[in-house]
């Protein structure tokens, strides 16, 4: 299907513009929280666009290939899923190569379209920060900062039918 494009961004100036868009969105999202939760939300590190030497904007063109693309006829959003699979493959490859990759999704798509000259029908699915890291954390930051708890596997894996109890 290959609905994706990868825009490799090494320009400091463009990365600063992307960091501005992400920070604007982060501050806008704080409206969903109050009191302590708001303070905690604003203290979370959710992007490293200015620190990373490379940003990759991964896009998805839902019009590519016309209106009847095999695989997209039954479930239209398979184009976004295909794009997400390509990102996951690169995420794993980056770790295998000793690099680190951070997925940034805090932005308004139109801000990113404006900054990167992306046409209106193409979706900026992700901004990926790629670089070197001193450590690979054991857990996602949202978990170690006690923002979110990881669900128990036995609540996520079912046997035979939805809700069917899975026994190891
Ligand atoms: C669609 C998507 C969007 C994400 N957006 C962000 C983000 O904006 N900032 C961030 O720090 N991490 C982001 N992440 C990374 C997650 O917070 C998390 O570290 C990662 O997905 C691994 O945890 P998981 O196994 O629970 O998905 C994103 C991940 C996904 C899949």
Number of strands: 4
Shape: globular
Mean pLDDT value? 94
Distance between the termini: 37 Å
- What spatial order of strands do you see in the largest sheet? 1-2-4-3
Show the helix and strand layout.
Layout: E1 4-9, H1 12-29, H2 35-43, E2 54-60, H3 78-96, E3 100-104, H4 109-116, E4 123-131, H5 141-144
Antiparallel strand pairs: 1-2, 2-4, 3-4
The chain binds flavin mononucleotide.
Flavin mononucleotide is lined by residues 46-47, 102-106, 140, 142.
How does this structure look, described?
This protein has 168 residues and is an alpha+beta fold. 35% of the residues lie in helices and 16% in strands. The chain has 5 helices and 4 strands. The protein has helices at 12-29, 35-43, 78-96, 109-116, 141-144; strands at 4-9, 54-60, 100-104, 123-131. It has a 4-stranded antiparallel beta sheet, with helices on both faces. Helix 1 runs antiparallel to helix 4 (109-116). The two termini are 37 Å apart. The chain binds flavin mononucleotide.
List keywords for this structure.
168 residues; alpha+beta; 4-stranded antiparallel beta sheet; 5 helices; 35% helix; binds flavin mononucleotide
């Amino acid at each position: 299907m290959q609905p994706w494009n990868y825009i490799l961004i090494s320009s400091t100036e463009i990365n600063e513009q992307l960091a501005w868009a992400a920070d604007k969105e982060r501050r806008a999202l704080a409206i969903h929280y109050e009191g302590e939760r708001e303070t905690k939300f604003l203290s979370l590190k959710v992007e490293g666009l200015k620190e990373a030497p490379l940003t990759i904007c991964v896009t998805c063109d839902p019009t590519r290939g016309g209106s009847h693309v095999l695989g997209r006829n039954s479930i239209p959003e398979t184009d976004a899923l295909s794009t997400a699979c390509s990102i996951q493959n690169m995420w794993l490859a980056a770790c295998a190569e000793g690099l680190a990759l951070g997925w940034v999704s805090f932005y308004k798509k139109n801000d990113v379209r404006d900054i990167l000259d992306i046409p209106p029908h193409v979706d900026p699915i992700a901004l990926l920060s790629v670089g070197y890291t001193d450590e690979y954390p054991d857990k996602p930051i949202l978990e170690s900062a006690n923002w979110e708890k990881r669900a128990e596997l036995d609540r996520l894996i079912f046997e035979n039918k939805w809700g069917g109890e899975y026994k190891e």
